[in-house]
Amino acid sequence: MSIQSMTWALEQRVVTDPTCRHVLLCLANYADKNGRGAFPSASSLSDDTGLSERTIRYKLDALEAAGVIRRGNQAIAAAYIDRYDRRPVVYDMVENRGAPAAPREDEDAERGANEDATGCSSQQNGVQMKTERGAPAAPNPSSIRQLSVNKPKKRAGKPAGEKSAKFDPSLAKPANVSAETWADWCQHRKEIRKPLTATSCKQQAEDLANHPNPDAVIKLSIGKGWTGLFPDSALGSVAGTNGGASAVLQVPAHHQEMYPDDYI
């Protein structure tokens, strides 16, 4: 990219046609700081200007006829593009009109390399054959265009340390319930797709706190396929154990809470 050449292309008043000025400005973008060695392909200039490749070639001929550009050292393109028919024309900006052309090295090579080439090809290449003292190498035209990079967005969310731990109902066993029975109850609730929550475990522990046989309450609910615990339902079993065979099992009133959704 040559800021000097692009500034000249904007400030010059020799070319007044808007389309020609646009092509000249884009062509100057590919020259070095001295306005030399610009050889973008027709497709590159077409992408830069939005014009057709045919129009680009016409405007380049018009700019050359106006004397604001001239053919430069064609050996630059030949050094990097082997195929003759794929080499774009190398142009120099004529920034100081009327001044004698600066001497160039390898004049013989220039005359013999692509002297009869016309127009531009679709190949996109750009190179600076030699750099002056301290001058950086000319960039490839394809690298001049700045491509936007989509940076990944940070996902909003709580830090890992702040995420709440998954509740484990097996750790919320009531004090008066055996570990085996409570494990069966946790598994039962899981199988019917009604896993125990911290709130339900707390409530069930309170319901079973003063019960004489909490394991019987849980086993009865498992056997019946109930989702809840009903302490009164097992009192008859306890009475039968303590008072003899004449005791009658007390059956609780049926309501929807006893059954999982699959059974309703």
Automatic annotation (TrEMBL):
<dbReference type="Pfam" id="PF13730">
    <property type="entry name" value="HTH_36"/>
</dbReference>
<dbReference type="InterPro" id="IPR036390">
    <property type="entry name" value="WH_DNA-bd_sf"/>
</dbReference>
<feature type="compositionally biased region" description="Polar residues">
    <location>
        <begin position="119"/>
        <end position="128"/>
    </location>
</feature>
<dbReference type="InterPro" id="IPR036388">
    <property type="entry name" value="WH-like_DNA-bd_sf"/>
</dbReference>
<feature type="region of interest" description="Disordered">
    <location>
        <begin position="97"/>
        <end position="173"/>
    </location>
</feature>
<feature type="compositionally biased region" description="Polar residues">
    <location>
        <begin position="140"/>
        <end position="149"/>
    </location>
</feature>
<protein>
    <submittedName>
        <fullName>Helix-turn-helix domain-containing protein</fullName>
    </submittedName>
</protein>
